[in-house]
Amino acid sequence: MWDPSYLEKIREKLEEWEKEVLQPILKKLPERKQKFLTEQGFEIKRFYTPLDLAERGWDYLSKLGFPGDYPFTRGVYPTMYRGRPWTIRQYAGYGSAEETNKRYKYLLSIGQTGLSMAFDLPTQLGLDPDHPLAYYEVGKVGVSCPTPVEMEIIFDGIPMEKITTSMTINATAIEILSMYVLVAEKRGVPRHVLGGTVQNDILKEFIARNNYIYPPEPSMRYATDLIIWCAKEMPKWNSISISGYHFEEAGATPAQEIAFTLADGIEYVRWVLNRGKLQGWPRSVDDFAPRLSFFFSARTNLFEQVAKFRAARRMWAKIMKEWFGAKKPRSMMLRFHTQTAGVQLTAQQPLVNLIRTTIQALAAVLGGTQSLHVNSYDEALCLPTEEAVKLSIRVQQVLLYETGVADTIDPLGGAYYVEWLTDMLEEEAWKIIDRIERMGGMTRAVESGWPRAEIAKAAYEYQLKVEKGEVLIVGVNIFTEPEIPKIQVLKVDPAVRERVIDRLRKYRESRDVAKVKRALEEVRKVAEKDDVNIVPAIMEAVRSGATLGEISGTLREVWGEWRAPEIF
Amino acid sequence: MSQLQQRRRYKVLVAKLGLDGHDRGAKVIARALRDAGMDVVYLGVHQTPENVVRTAIEEDVDVIGISILSGSHIELVSDLMKKLREHGIDVPVIVGGVIPPQDYEELKKLGVSEVMGPGTPLSKVIEVYSKLAEEYRKRKRGESK
Fold first, then answer.
1. Burial A469-497 (b: 16+ CB within 10 A, else e)
2. What is the CATH number for B121?
3. What's the alpha-carbon Rg for chain B, to the nearest Å?
4. How far apart are CA A217 and CA A373, in angstroms?
5. pLDDT digits (tens, 9 = 90+) for A381-434
6. Which of B13, B14, B16, B28 to mutate to test the interface with A (most CBs of A within 10 A)?
7. Dihedral of CA A205/A207/A209/A212: which sign?
8. What share of residues in chain A are helix, strand, coil (percent, to 5)?
9. DSSP string spanning A303-339?
10. pLDDT tens for residues B134-145?
11. Fewer CB atoms inside 10 A, N or C side of chain A?
12. Residue of A461, A91, A487, A496 whose CA lies nearest to A297
């Protein structure tokens, strides 16, 4: 696509410009810095021209193609936001089921278009709220949900057949999804109608997020069985959200975020294929890959972030097509959710966070996200208040309805700088993926602690840059003010704990104990075997009246617990 | 390094109390303190007050650094301080994490020496840990005389 004689002409003109226009100016007015670097550490040139792309052998059709077509660099759908806007999906939930239900209804009333459930830490770690380790944490960072009774209250008056629901749940994903399915079925909504996502990405828990229970091998079996079960039973449900967000939050560079996420994806695909051989299905990637989904972070560093999303999309398409022989285009599509980078929120001058999140959200939209969560300005201090969350939704609405950024597809496509960055990030990420491949894949890498250590190292290096003023943060190390203002904060009422525990006791008293015992015994038996899918046994246990803590406790007895190697 | 200097090294414990898994801050602090020449006992995530107190005693640390981002800081820290008192030790405790400024005073009332939220420069963190460790050692020497 590059005409050599024309490139030569550009080169000549460029040299002429440097000599006659640039040099005299530089003598009078030197630039702000000796070197300009991206967050990844790439040195940034003054500006970019076709020469930079031609040098790399860059070719439009093979690198970009068209929206909704391989390699999907420009976007996964042919019409993108012109056809359907991204889903406005704010991660929410706190206290008891009643508070959460009220918050969901509020969010929907002001224009949110999908739900995203936050569960409290005991629920995420398989502990009932009356467990001694759970007590202080009940309802703090999300809703407590030990039984379907809570799920029923959370969704009271919310049309489960219409709304899509995303659930940030991993080590107890099967128990929680079972509750959701049972509540829907009780209301006459069959599971095959339900749309949404279960995060179910245990590898990133081991690497960065730390809400794991069992050791890597049985945890992978648990996650994989849910992917297989969803592929069969819930055709509109995303069986996993392979997450890079938490890597970025823990300190990963953009290339690490891409590489660790895609390496996790590769590992899940291999596990599903292997367990498919044991269970007789699935036989090919096209049986389940269309329902794999992804989750990334959006930082303030706009162009590199847009490049990150584009590079990840192109790489996944290639992995699925060339490594795994996918035939269906949908198997090759990297569909993703984005959350703005929580770690870039500041406690200092909190309202400034609104400006940051707006730019981060813009990066996600320019990068072609399918759904978006915008953090609230107060989240470096507390859970978001209603007022703060409203502004997060308004940020998305202004982007969608006022800026025009959603009116054309991949508007930065073809920008010399952005294409160069996309290529550079891709190259860097492949190097990391190669390294993980040589380690034997991500489960092995996780056991060794290597990705954790790499991320901790990157986090520390970043902090040193902040310390030295090489990274500037308004309100933190530049334009500082003496006090952190006492803004209005949200506090979870400790009384919710008693309410949840009280309901749990009544639930335990009202059930058929012998039936629960039999169901838990079945969970144990299936967990001990390797060639059976574990989802039906867990779902039956939930149906019989077993609580989240009881099921998880049974699995703990069979599989044991894991502690990640602590490297700092 | 001479033996005397080695004995002078401050020993600090860094832990995540409660169930939240956000350990970026705790790890960065642990590493910065180590790079500043302190001995760091890093306990990592999912720690109970009991375990922190036991380790603090066993390792004879000069400062305890606690990181909490789940919003349970008041309850968890008050439990920790109670258990420290029960064991009769007054080792200084520093708390960091997502803590609204409204709660700084309450944490100090509970006996916390310092609260350092997001955005605190590492140089200040090191300075505060060193100062509190030094004061604690002086107190201990005074008691043993």
1. eeeebebbbeeeeeebeebebbbbeeebb
2. 3.40.50.280
3. 14
4. 31
5. 998 999 999 999 999 999 999 999 999 999 999 999 999 999 999 999 999 999
6. B28
7. positive
8. 55, 10, 40
9. HHHHHHHHHHHHHHHHIIIIIT---SHHHH---EEEE
10. 999 999 888 775
11. N
12. A91
Comparing CA positions, the residue from B48, B31, B133, B115 lying closest to residue B82 is B48
CA–CA gap between residue A265 and residue A285 (Å, rounded): 12
Is A249 close to B24, i.e. CB distance below 8 A?
yes
Query: For residue range A141-174, what is the model confidence (pLDDT) as tens digits?
Result: 999 999 999 999 999 999 999 999 999 999 999 9
Q: What's at A500, amino acid-wise?
A: V
| Cα distance between residue B127 and residue B129, in whole Å | 6
Measured between beta carbons, which residues in chain A are less than 8 angstroms from residue B123? 467
Share of chain A above pLDDT 90, in %: 96
Structural domain range at position B26: 3-144
The confidence score (pLDDT) of residue B1 equals 45
Distance between A459 CA and the closest CA of chain B, angstroms = 7
Taking CA atoms, what residue in A is nearest to B121? A467
Q: Do B119 and A473 touch (CB under 8 A)?
A: yes
Question: Which chain B residues are closer than 8 Å to A211 by Cβ?
Answer: 21
**pLDDT digit string, tens, across residues A330-387:** 999 999 999 999 999 999 999 999 999 999 999 999 999 999 999 999 999 998 999 9
Q: Do A137 and B70 touch (CB under 8 A)?
A: yes
- What is the three-class DSSP state of A5? helix
pLDDT confidence of residue B7: 57
Residues linked to residue A143 through DSSP beta bridges, in sequence order: A95, A119
Give the mutation candidate from B16, B17, B23, B66 for the A interface (greatest A CB count, under 10 A).
B23
Say if CB A8 and CB A50 are below 8 A apart.
no
Residue A22: what pLDDT?
Answer: 98
Contact call for B24 and A210, based on CB within 8 A: no
Are the beta carbons of B101 and A381 separated by less than 8 Å?
A: yes
* Amino acid sitting at position A133: L
Start-to-end CA distance of chain A, whole Å, equals: 48
Task: Tell me how many domains chain B contains.
Answer: 1
Please tell me the total number of residues recorded for chain B in this structure. Answer: 145
Residue A156 tokens, joined? 């009271």
Mutate one of B17, B22, B68, B124 to test the A interface: name it (highest A CB count within 10 A): B22
Decide if A250 contacts B24 (C-beta within 8 A).
yes
Among the partner-chain residues B21, B27, B100, the one whose CB lies closest to the CB of A209 is B21
ipTM rounded to 2 decimals = 0.93
What rounded mean pLDDT belongs to chain A? 97
Q: How far is CA A524 from the centre of its chain?
A: 31
Determine the distance from the C-alpha atom of residue A364 to the mean position of all C-alpha atoms in its chain, rounded to a whole number. Answer: 12
Reported as a single tens digit per residue, the pLDDT across A223-262 is: 999 999 999 999 999 999 999 999 999 999 999 999 999 9
